[in-house]
Amino acid sequence: MGFPLEYPTCRRDQSVVDDYHGVKITDPYRWLEDPDSDETKEFVEKQANLTESLLNTCETREKLRCQLTKLFDHPRYSTPFKKGEKYFYFQNTGLQPQSVLYMQDNIDAEAEVLVDPNVFSEDGTVSLKIAAVSEDAKYLAYGLSSSGSDWVSINVMRVEDKFLEPHTLSWVKFSSVTWTHDNKGFFYSRYPAPTQGEKLDAGTETNSNLNQELYYHFLGTEQSEDVLCWKDPENPKFMFEAQIMDDGKHVLLYIQESCDPVNKLYYCDLSTINGLEGFKNRTDMLPFVKLVDHFDASYRAVANDGTQFTFLTNKDAPKYKLIRVDLKEPSVWTNVIEESEKDVLESADVVNGNQILVSYLSDAKNVLQLRELKTGLLVHQLPIDIGTVYGISGRRKDSEVFIGFTSFLTPGIIYRCHLAGDAPEMKMFREIVVPGFDHTEFQVNQEFVPSKDGTRIPLFIVSKKNMILDGSHPCLLYGYGGFNSSLTPSFSVSRTILTRHLGAVFCMANIRGGGEYGKEWHKAGSLAKKQNCFDDFISAAEYLVSAGYTQSTKLCIEGASNGGLLVAACVNQRPDLFGCALAHVGVMDMLRFHKFTIGHAWTSDFGCSDKEEQFQWLIKYSPLHNVKRPWEQHQNEKQHQYPPIMLLTADHDDRVVPLHSLKLLATMQYILCTSLENSPQTNPIIARIDRKAGHGCGRPTQKRIDEAADQYSFMAKMLGASWIN
Q: Which residues have a catalytic role annotated?
């Protein structure tokens, strides 16, 4: 389906050439790496105008926007959490830009607003990223982010009268907030403030994030007085996180070098140092003891009884297990819950004194069990439907726990589970109800598709009931496949609308690179084996066509971040297989990603072009470097051009900076559309470049609605899908 466009002319600078281990690579759009240059701004403006001109011709755009607005307008809640004797939770009444933090004196008391981030900006682009309440529930530390940036400013509020402490903590990024049990202050992580001459516009800079440090902030003091607890200038890429154990005495220090789920693990007994005040004017750091001093596995503390600590780990257990160690005998580790043969042990929460609520991932669906902390023995299997458990919230000293649940056809249920009796009581506490949504109209299947090498890939398929498999249906295939992250069933207003009003089939592929089957599944889709991700996704697409769910011209693929890379790489490798592609905030320049913001942390999954062997992996699939004219490749007689493509990015994405999408856009438009007369490429290649938005987190409701209306109306037009009332 051709929609020839008049693409803006774009300067190519052939003089920019890099030498990668003897291989010369031209980078003609290097100038697009500067987001502040007038030339980049002009490029963005022209591309935005081109995209808008096309979107204005999409017949379903306003119908989608109207229906999205209607269905988004329903109350949404998070699972409550308890501090002191008070309860806290987030709620969005429906179309509020951001969710609001509420507080209750008890679970039946009237809720009052504690922090409403919607008052901090007129357009709703300031979001609440951190909300950490002190143990006595007298203070709240909350972090605000602007325009979707990863940078956070931390404020402290007195809960009783909402009095705001005068001091704000700045240059905070990738940090948790952990209060000490004396309620005097908290641990947090931050980066050094920019030096004179460095860019100060947080969110649009591309500088590498290095030299994170762990600090302790005392209530009522300025940030300059914070206690430096840990730094490691010899390892500038290291990141630090503190955790206070339930006993209030032990603070753990987690050290990570990358996005790989491995960490070092140190501890400090606060009772031996006579309080943190003594470190205010000292130059030495906290006397952490090294328990694990190498990056060999993931270790996360679950509980401690004195010096006996229980950890969730993948040490010698790719699908994770629970282990125990006595700090007095640090070389002796014993298994509490053995690794499962098939299922991944995702989480473990100590509740009701000496019980653990464990969540397993079984074929990308959650299973909940209650076990004994001491022995690991199974006590009860909790009745959970097929779907995803999220937001488990409970304390060791309480006999109640809150559990969130969602699935493709369940907008959300929050259970309140009482553990005091002989058997757990699961009662529905709150249900999220979407007006006009009838789950009986739809069906969900899980199928297992053989990949190129025979590996079975789980594939969820959501469609209208009693659908005829005649290949006539529009289809949206979503994937990720990286960084040990698992895709599990969840409810989506926009995907429901696609199924209901465009007759689309929605599919989600659990390809390798994710965490669905543990460490081995993750490693099978990373580094030298990254091609497995693309093979898995392509195999899922081929199956959907061969099984009669759809046909190539009606198949759209979508992914975000690492999933944006997935979509772009698959389009390069099999342009004949897809009828449309939506690539959100993708990592597109695989030779230079490590040079910007937090990109250096991704080398654990991708590798790095600085190393010759890894350069050879990356150059084979890097989206930016593999755009080819299909009509010259003779891959397939039926398809001689790329499918319609929409690249989506945002000006304040400081995770995967916009230059990735901008450089790929310029490259695709040049090679496929503008560098030769009478190009067969009539399918549009456009970008949606959002303003005052970031990588995805903290996006206000209206922006979510607008983006969904734009991308899916583009998809509908490209696939020839019409509106069904």
A: 561, 653, 695
